[in-house]
């Protein structure tokens, strides 16, 4: 037994030395080549990263209705910011706010962005009116009992209805004709005449204050001037005394400043919109312009949201543009009894300001309807993107993975054979 153990140990030691020698030889022979390959790989990786390639993106899944929306900014960061602001307020109780738009002034670089976002919204609505209600209109279907929308001649057969009495219908949708409001949604908010001096709307002013689309309100606060929604423009920054905003600017200059702003706004906001019929061969160009205006509106709104605060309720879709949320008791979502109908305000995302309204992607409008058994092979896209793509617009790169263009769905009689 002892000799056998010694023999086995000897064999294992010889094998280890042989493998180590082989590794040293390979490293000596191919080390230089490996370095060259690594350098080439790093250069190729840098070139790949430098290009405008979009990562994989899927449709965001909504959480339970009883749970609060996730915070865009982590809670620890919000707590640290609040402590820093409180410390700065104690060190200097009376101070001039230096940074815009907290001090009541406009950000000069974002005034043109606000006009571009407003113009893009007008062009988007004009293009949608032609694509939905024009001569070459693409049919839009919506469910009678739930917010589901479908782009196509026939509604899909996917059983995802959550409306009233959906159990008796086996969660099947009941399709009716849809419109522009079903394709894209603009949530409304209260208009603020003075976003710094009076940032809140109380419950008594529920019907006295005008409401308008939140995107338009964001553009107004960023420098857009509309006669129907007057707003106060300041030329001097405001003071912060013990956390309260104090304005020492005279009110006589407001009328002159507003008049000059209306003149410049009328010059910038002239949008050439043709009311003529769509000619043959131009429907694809119109859809491409409409889709590009939607992308420009979203990108411009994201730039504005980095400076101008937009908040939303953590439980319902209510949105308010401004430093603080309103105090109108109109929340009917989960746990509203504990808040006395008030909203649970938090930082908003771009999808809260401009709702994408995701729909199933249809590859062939004239083909059979989408089957419930093959729903995991189908992709989704925002309704405006699906509408413009069906009209002939090119597919944006950021939505290619979401639409699952690289997936080939099996036939109905083959789905049980696929793993």
Automatic annotation (TrEMBL):
<feature type="domain" description="APO">
    <location>
        <begin position="312"/>
        <end position="397"/>
    </location>
</feature>
<feature type="domain" description="APO">
    <location>
        <begin position="142"/>
        <end position="228"/>
    </location>
</feature>
<protein>
    <submittedName>
        <fullName>APO protein 3, mitochondrial</fullName>
    </submittedName>
</protein>
<dbReference type="GO" id="GO:0003723">
    <property type="term" value="F:RNA binding"/>
</dbReference>
<feature type="region of interest" description="Disordered">
    <location>
        <begin position="41"/>
        <end position="72"/>
    </location>
</feature>
<dbReference type="Pfam" id="PF05634">
    <property type="entry name" value="APO_RNA-bind"/>
</dbReference>
<dbReference type="InterPro" id="IPR023342">
    <property type="entry name" value="APO_dom"/>
</dbReference>
């Amino acid at each position: 037994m002892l000799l056998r153990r010694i023999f086995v140990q000897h064999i294992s030691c010889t094998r280890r030395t042989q493998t180590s020698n082989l590794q040293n030889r390979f490293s000596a022979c191919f080390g230089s080549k490996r370095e060259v390959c690594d350098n080439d790989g790093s250069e190729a990786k840098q070139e790949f990263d430098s290009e405008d390639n979009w990562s994989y993106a899927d449709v965001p899944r909504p959480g339970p209705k009883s749970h609060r929306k996730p915070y865009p900014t982590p809670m620890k960061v919000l707590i640290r910011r609040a402590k820093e602001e409180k410390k700065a307020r104690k060190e200097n109780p009376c101070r001039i706010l230096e940074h815009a738009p907290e001090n009541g002034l406009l950000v000069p670089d974002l005034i043109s962005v606000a006009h571009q976002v407003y113009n893009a919204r007008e062009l988007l609505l004009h293009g949608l009116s032609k694509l939905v209600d024009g001569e070459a209109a693409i049919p839009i279907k919506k469910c009678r009992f739930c917010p589901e929308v479908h782009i196509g001649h026939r509604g899909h057969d996917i059983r995802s209805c959550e409306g009233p009495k959906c159990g008796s219908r086996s969660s099947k949708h009941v399709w009716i004709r849809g419109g522009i409001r079903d394709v894209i949604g603009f949530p409304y908010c209260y208009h603020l005449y003075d976003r710094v001096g009076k940032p809140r709307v109380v419950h008594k002013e529920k019907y006295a204050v005008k409401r308008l689309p939140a995107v338009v309100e964001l553009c107004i606060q960023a420098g857009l001037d509309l006669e129907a929604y007057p707003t106060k423009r300041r030329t001097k920054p405001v003071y912060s005394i013990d956390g309260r905003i104090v304005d020492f600017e005279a009110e006589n200059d407001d009328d002159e400043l507003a008049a000059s702003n209306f003149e410049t706004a009328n010059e910038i906001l002239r949008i050439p919109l043709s009311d003529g019929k769509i000619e043959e061969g131009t429907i694809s160009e119109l859809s491409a312009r409409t889709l590009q205006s939607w992308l420009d509106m979203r990108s411009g709104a994201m730039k504005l949201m980095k400076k101008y605060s937009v908040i939303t309720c953590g439980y319902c879709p209510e949105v308010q543009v401004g430093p603080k949320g309103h105090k109108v008791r109109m929340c009917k979502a989960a746990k509203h009894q504990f808040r006395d109908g008030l909203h649970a305000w938090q930082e908003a995302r771009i999808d809260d300001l401009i709702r994408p309204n995701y729909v199933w992607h249809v590859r062939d409008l004239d083909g059979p309807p989408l089957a419930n058994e093959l729903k995991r092979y189908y992709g989704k896209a925002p309704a405006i993107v699906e509408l413009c793509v069906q009209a002939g617009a090119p597919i944006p790169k950021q939505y290619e993975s979401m639409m699952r263009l690289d997936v080939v769905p099996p036939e109905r009689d083959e789905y049980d054979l696929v793993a």
